[in-house]
Amino acid sequence: MNQGTNRFFIESVELLKMIENHDDLTILDCRFNLQERNEGRELFEESHIPNAQYVDLEKDLSGEVQLHGGRHPLPSIGFLEKMFQEKGVSLETPVVIYDQGKAPVAARLFWILRFLGHSQVFVLQGGYNSWQHSNYPTEKGPAKKAQGNFTARINKEMLALFTDVKEMIETKKGNLIDSREYQRYLGNEEPIDKKAGRIPTALHYFWGDVFEGNRYKTKEQLMQHFQSLSPDEPITVYCGSGVTAAPNVLALLSLGFKHVKLYIGSFSDWISYDDSPVELGE
Fold first, then answer.
1. Catalytic residues, which ones?
2. Which PANTHER family does this chain map to (predicted)?
3. Once rounded to an integer, what is the mean pLDDT over residues 209-222?
4. 257 and 264 Cβ atoms separated by less than 8 Å
């Protein structure tokens, strides 16, 4: 598999060859439904890519909700290290991640592993839907026991916190991207959080627009989509809770954008501070 600098995606046929060749790799299934929280694990046990481990968005990739930090806060580094070790992850071994296809969880898992210093992380183009559509082999039942030796090597340049976003607004350096639906960006509706609106100065790039069907768009399409942004300027991406922002982060990194951060707490963290301003309307 070509592991070039901006190579973050893998096709189903490539993954099949790696499995058939018994290549050393870890496969992580992170299918998840925010409305039906047990659905992802149930789908995994019904059918999954051979040798895959299941990773749960809320149990494995999110910490305990507190006053600040948002609705899907980042777990402790120690928790993540132990969890990834139990999924068979090692720094020297490639990791292939998949979710349903047009979904944000694989990108969130991708971001977490890259933030923790893993350099060989790939997202399956088209997700599990693509694998099934190709009639490639599957397994059923719970994941097999695994053990890796993963240890974190934190890349702080990928993470934005509340103070970073506040400073970004005050200094007017870089671009802030809101990944939520347009009506939430405008503040016309807010189905989840206690306050409507957006973080001041934010531009709107809906997370679903980086997909075509179940696949991430081509490099040319993504370059056109993000044409008003400079690859050399700092970019911080947010959504409601640090999940649906992740596909925008992955898409930008795949284009070679150099300074892309995920505001992990996102809008739900921003409004947890009572004096945080919001903007409404166009």
1. 239
2. SULFURTRANSFERASE, THIOSULFATE SULFERTANSFERASE
3. 97
4. no
